[in-house]
Amino acid sequence: MNPKDKIRNLIENGRIREALQCFLENLADGDTVSMDDVLGLSGRFSRLVEQENDGTVSVDDARLERANINKSILSFVQLWSSGDAGSILDKAIAALPVHKDADLGLIQRVNCDRIKPVRKFNQTFESKKQARQPFQFYFLCGCPNEMPDSLAERLLYEIIDKEGLDVQSSVHYLFAEEKDKRARIENLPLGIDLAGSKKKFKEYVQKRFAFANTDSFEAFVETGLPRLPYKFVFTVFKMGESEWEDAEEDIIGYLQWTTDTFKTAHPDVPTFLFFFVFEFRRLYDAEHIKPQHAAILKQLEQFCEASASSIFREIIPIKDMHLADWLSKLGVDNPNDSSRLVEALGQTLKAEDRLTIDGERRFHMKDVQPVQSRIIETFRNKR
């Protein structure tokens, strides 16, 4: 088994420390992933284990951090190639004529295609803004391979840019990492039943805003006190398909309670945007949606219609032309340059990740976004 597959296999089996050790043992000078990159992840994992042993991190936070570390390891594995041979993809990236003044900010990591859901969101957001709705709920449903959580991240950055918000003072969202201000994707607070989930949600709000106790949750909604000094507050919650099993009624009830709780909020509260990300495998392929998933989605659509919430399902694999369009935003206008990059990406993929839908080549977002990040980091370092 080659080192890449071995690392992937270790991650799938929850053996993070061994995966990191395998990565470090196989790195060499000149590789496209540096020793510092992997050592940084190893340090994060060691700190997490210490916090778990000391009891200074909650079970939910620890699970989220493990998921983030796994995600980072797998992204590095995809981008890793030997410095001696070099990869076609890395050579294609290095040869891109990215403009020296191109915007290489946060949003460029997550803004490839997805035009339809973004347009729908902008229209919905403007309508709710005009109606002065202080609490807004958006439900994003997609296959994990299409990374619906990163669509929520993109929508967050779009609002910050559109509204001219100062990240330090007028908007509040949690960072995945302090240094780059990327939004943190959090597990939806869930208990063993509906009552437990409500309790978990109140505890989440209490912890995030340092309220005195969970009773402050109701008081805040009713009175707007303690007053928060922000114009917008963003939260992105995520839940996998397995957590729906035998719990559909409780979860729909939980969502109903959440939206009902905020219906009569005090006018002094900031505008809260809640993004709920629900993942269902192969949701983009109507022929392969599981019956139980189709039933859950129908319930969600009915719930959203009744609660004046919004649901987004148009989260699908992207066309190669959309990656070329993204490159043009960086000043890569020659089709030959973008074609080389697209072809190189296609050659790095496993057979099962090479998609053709309606006669057109498509890419999973899980394969596109690491390349976006690699391009951004490569050209940032050249400035």
Keywords:
single chain; 383 residues; alpha/beta; globular
Structural category is alpha/beta
- SSE string, helices as H and strands as E: HHHHHHEHEEEEHHEHEHEEHHEEH
What is the CA–CA distance across the termini?
Answer: 39 Å
Radius of gyration, taken over Cα atoms and rounded to an integer in Å: 22 Å
Tally of alpha and pi helices: 14
Major sheet: 6 strands, parallel
Shape: globular
Question: Helix fraction?
Answer: 40-55%
Mean pLDDT, all residues:
89
Strand content: 5-15%
**Low-confidence runs of at least 5 consecutive residues:** none
Note the topology.
Layout: H1 3-12, H2 16-26, H3 35-54, H4 59-79, H5 88-94, H6 115-130, E1 135-142, H7 148-162, E2 171-172, E3 175-177, E4 182-183, E5 186-187, H8 194-209, H9 215-223, E6 232-239, H10 248-261, E7 271-279, H11 291-307, E8 310-312, E9 318-319, H12 320-329, H13 335-348, E10 355-357, E11 360-363, H14 365-380
Helix pairs in contact: 1-2, 1-4, 2-3, 2-4, 3-4, 4-14, 5-13, 10-11, 12-13
